[in-house]
Design goal:
It is a single chain. This protein has three helices and eight strands. By secondary structure, it is of the alpha+beta class. The chain has one domain. The chain starts with a strand and ends in a 12-residue tail after the last strand. The N terminus is likely disordered.
Length: 179
Amino acid sequence: MKKQSEQRIATYETKNINANFLSLPECKCCLNKGESSACKARLSYSATIAQIERGFDKGYCPKLTDDGTSGCYMLRGNSRKPVAIFKPIDEEQFAPNNPRDFSGPFGSSTFRPGIVSGESTIREIAAYLLDHGHFSGVPMTSMAAISHESFKLANLTPPSDTLSLSSFNSSEAAGQSIY
């Protein structure tokens, strides 16, 4: 795994994954414990990507979640347990490749007023970057490109997708159920 740091951007490249992770500035909660939040986040993100690769090597394919209105896939690690969630930008609500029959051109209105298709991925990354001190518990999220033979996107060799990649946090309900 190649790891390159430039200022606060870390790039991770493996056989199937190319991800750029913008680490957060130091936060007071980590500094009070004598830890660097930027270093902890980079190490955690690197470990998540390594787990995803091991899952791919074992033959664990990305699995579309059972609920939701967009393409939201679970990635499993070596132990078959979910380690990350990815959401392709072209499979958002009313985006061109939505797998749940809510497709349309980029920029289409979605179920949420004021949000158009193609913006949700960027909003998820922004939510993580704005969660100072981890107050809201937004999972570690970054922009990534993942290649896997199970992706069925036309004219892409090898098949890949641009997406938001988040660490997996188990919960009792789907995100849209918690309003």
